[in-house]
Q: What sequence folds into this?
């Protein structure tokens, strides 16, 4: 549905590619179409047939499923006539009571608190927007939403439940609980809702006419750049790329390029690599039972799953817990080295690698979720007790540090080097090169925004 309002008669709004800084003009897409950046291949926007009212209904449904999923146990376990059941909140409480508050805080934020705030924020803005009104504190809500999104890990928790159930089935009788079905449905709903990024919501707000569409023109000594938070393309002085401006629409701090991106990325990567050692060497959980006490490392857990015959889950845990963090560390280091040495080879592949690193970021939290669930389920005083061990906190720190490292890295610098020849990348932002071509340079032909 076309906005029909002010922007249509004049120029359509612009959109900036976050990975290579090219500027494009938005246009309508046909069902199923995706507009990709013609330069680096990043998805710029995609067709959505959902109206604001449908998005609101989806957000409300998701919030109800969220409450149900958390109200019921995800699994039940029986040992010698005793039964223990656990929901996500039980797992958090047990982990906290056992004194592993870092692990409890990390998993509580990623699995419960942040997804809940995300859903509340979505309902807060979608209700007024669907009625054609500007939501109160819209700018603040959008900035919060942008900050929270990468840290919501419900799908990872859901996979963690499955792994925990299989692991315990070797020791006792374990059944999945009603909450697990809730989390399965929640995972699907949240994945669909994930499409509703703050940028997309701002575009909806523009199209409904509650926010004025601003189409900037580039003047002498200025350059067009997109706001990382709201996506608004605006003209800023072409001075030092790292100096701070403020977004004229959402007031977020606006840099042409992320400041000190290489030193920040390296610092976070080195810190993550340091934590990676205790994360793998130290046990992530300890089991005390009548048969004696034992401590389990990540790799030990994978071998155990394999020996139990669950080679599929063993592979998943191995990939998520061992391969993914290592891949992230190595990939980011390679990407940073390319820029450090001013290389312009394989820029498109490098952008794709960076997108992959961003995408897989949260999946390594899997084993930490498994540990807190095992702790809550196998909690039989005197008979068997499982608790988190120091490796779990170290492991969670690796996940957080590598995610922060990926966020600090600025892939646009590589494209800057290409545009500037052999000059220092930072001095030559490239957005001017592709100044809003009238028809978007899409890989798949697309038109407009929805
Ligand atoms: Zn691009
Ligand atoms: Zn902004």
A:
């Amino acid at each position: 549905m076309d906005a029909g309002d002010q922007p249509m008669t004049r120029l359509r709004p612009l959109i900036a590619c976050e990975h290579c800084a090219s500027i494009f003009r938005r246009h309508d897409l046909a069902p199923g179409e995706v507009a990709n950046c013609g330069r680096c291949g990043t998805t710029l926007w995609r067709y959505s047939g959902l109206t604001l009212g449908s998005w609101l209904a989806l957000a409300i449904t998701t919030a109800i499923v969220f409450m149900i999923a958390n109200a019921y146990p995800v699994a039940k376990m029986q040992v010698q006539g005793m039964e223990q059941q656990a929901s996500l909140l039980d797992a958090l409480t047990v982990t906290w009571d056992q004194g592993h508050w870092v692990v409890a805080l990390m998993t509580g934020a990623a699995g419960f608190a942040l997804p809940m705030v995300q859903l509340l924020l979505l309902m807060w803005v979608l209700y007024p927007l669907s009625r054609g009104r500007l939501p109160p504190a819209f700018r603040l809500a959008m900035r919060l939403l942008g900050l929270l999104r990468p840290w919501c890990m419900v799908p990872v928790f859901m996979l963690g439940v499955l792994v925990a159930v299989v692991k315990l089935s070797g020791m006792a009788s374990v059944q999945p609980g009603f909450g697990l079905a809730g989390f399965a449905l929640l995972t699907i709903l949240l994945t669909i809702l994930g499409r509703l990024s703050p940028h997309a919501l701002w575009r909806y707000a523009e199209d409904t006419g509650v926010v004025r569409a601003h189409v900037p023109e580039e003047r002498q000594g200025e350059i067009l750049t997109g706001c990382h938070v709201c996506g608004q393309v605006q003209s800023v002085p072409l001075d030092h790329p790292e100096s701070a401006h403020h977004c004229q629409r959402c007031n977020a701090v606006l840099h042409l390029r992320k400041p000190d991106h290489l030193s920040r990325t390296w610092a976070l990567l080195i810190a993550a690599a340091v934590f990676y050692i205790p994360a793998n060497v130290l046990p992530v959980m300890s089991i005390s039972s009548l048969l004696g006490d034992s401590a389990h490392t990540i790799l030990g857990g994978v071998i155990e799953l394999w020996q139990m015959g669950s080679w599929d889950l063993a592979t998943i845990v191995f990939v998520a817990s061992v391969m993914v963090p290592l891949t992230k560390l190595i990939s980011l280091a390679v990407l940073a080295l390319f820029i450090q040495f001013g290389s312009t080879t394989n820029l498109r592949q490098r952008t794709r690698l960076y997108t992959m690193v961003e995408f897989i970021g949260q999946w390594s939290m899997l084993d930490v979720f498994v540990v807190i669930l095992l702790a809550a389920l196998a909690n039989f005083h005197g008979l068997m007790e499982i608790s988190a061990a120091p490796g779990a906190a170290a492991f969670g720190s690796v996940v957080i540090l590598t995610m922060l490292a990926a966020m600090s890295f600025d892939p646009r610098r590589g494209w800057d080097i290409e545009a500037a020849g052999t000059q220092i990348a930072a001095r030559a932002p490239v957005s001017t090169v592709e100044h809003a071509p009238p028809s978007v340079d899409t890989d798949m032909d697309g038109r407009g925004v929805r």
Q: What stands out?
A: The radius of gyration is 24 Å. The chain has one domain: 6-422.
